[in-house]
Amino acid sequence: QVQLVESGGRSVQPGGSLKLSCAASGLTFSEYALSWHRQAPGKERELVASISTGGRANYADAVKGRFTISRHNDKAMMDLQMNDLRPDDTAVYYCRAEWRKRRLVEWGSGTLVTVSS
After folding, report:
1. Which end of the chain is more exposed for a tag (fewer CB within 10 A), N or C?
2. Which stretches within 3-73 are classed as H helix?
């Protein structure tokens, strides 16, 4: 059974930092491209950052320079280090894994990040 489980979400003040983690099980982790997405209240889900099987990272303009995505194939985990958080970073953050060759896509159930003073 494939599972993606996010952790690390909580309330933080503007300017603060958080690290989100996504633990995977039941899949061949190294074959999957990984990404973080977020959905703010009343808005559509959006891509935040992605990392390829080879470790190449890409970021949405809104988080470039503040967020860092990383993957740890030996532990089947992915992280999102978030610095200089802003109120508009408030959202539920989801991890996603995609094995393009086999057209397999998995989602986690999300973790809530609230940025507020």
Report:
1. N
2. none
